[in-house]
Amino acid sequence: MDWDEFAHWGTHISNWSADYHKTLRDRPVRAQTAFGETAAQLPQAPPDGAEAMERIMADFENIVMPGITHWQHPRFFAYFPANAAPPSMLAEMLVTTIASQCMLWQTSPAATEVETVMVQWLRQALGLSEGFTGVIQDSASSATLSAVLTMRERATGYTGNRDGIAGKEHLRIYCSDQVHSSIDRACWVSGIGQANLVKIPGTGPRHGMDAAALQAAITADRAAGHTPAGIIAITGGTGIGACDTLGPILEVAKAEDLYTHLDAAWAGAAMICPELHADFWADVDGFDSIVFNPHKWLGAQFDCSVQFLRDAQPQLNTLKIEPEYLKTTGESVTNYSEWTIPLGRRFRALKIWFLIRSYGLDGLRTRVRNHILWAGEVCEAIRKLDGFEIVTDPILSLFSFRCPGSDDDQQRLVDALNGDGRIYVTQGSFAGRKIIRFQVGQFDTTRADVMMAETVIRDVWEKMQ
Asked: pTM of the full predicted structure?
């Protein structure tokens, strides 16, 4: 492909992309293909000769697209959103075109400096105090693993990387029982182990970690000869949106000298709305590490996760490695590869710059506020359906419900709704029962899209009877 042909197909794909987004409402949200159906249409060996782009694009439309679940669909109410606002997509096109490797300042100075400023823009947008720095990670899983590794190193006097942790006292990490599975995985990968992740039951209307139970668990572990290493709190857990009350947890952490990490991967984006701070964000400045994903609710093309650090040095002490070929001579600069696990880094900050400038914080706040409002409205509509139960009331824009019947009936309804194609939801589990999760957050959804869900749920349920 020469550059004239690239320009031709670039224009074609841009037009295709716009048409795709403009017609999304006409498509079923979830892929309707069976397992193996896509693979069966692909040749089992690569071609020796070149093929025309016309044929490649035709196969893309005929083979790939039927097997795509449409995460940008305005009636995507499953999981959490992975939004891609148009300016963010354009920024990604530019990043793909220049294809910079942004591991060091000197390998792409502008990428490093734009990232530094964008982290500060987002710090201000979320109301975090001056002094926080940060880094753009690929996902919250990587940020959480970085924090857990930092907890491990800090608790072992920064000897774990050098000597390993075999033979050391059992290190313990504490968290709510509503945390995301990435916390469990971070404990696996770090060598701390699942058995040393202590989950504290949630209490109260937002199902947050009980600080007294947390303190009791730490005290018991110290008495048993274990070494507490850190605490992970949540604002907006994946299952039901659970939120910890941050102040009491920080008091325990301070008394016990423990490193703290706050997983606000989904709900952190909503903190651009100052009116939510008192209920969800009070005392947040006390955390050592905080993560939120602009690629969820804020509209930044996946992947884009921001980790804020009250003091970056402990994480640098944990992750920084500097062979001769990565050293920067001369002036002191920031090399973000020293802050993260991967060495290679993409220019993720550009899409944040484009996104915030294109919508302004006010435009983004309006979307978040609408989603929260509409989630409350559709929740009340579902509550009125005969025999339906709201299991967990809306926390921001996430709630859960059950239809009449057993756990098997909940799954039958989820499968029937997703097979119907008009909306997409996911199942979950809470208090030993299967639930149906519903979250509002797709970037271009409207009130009509959200309220349509009640009609679809009623329709599909009636057909199942």
From this structure: 0.93
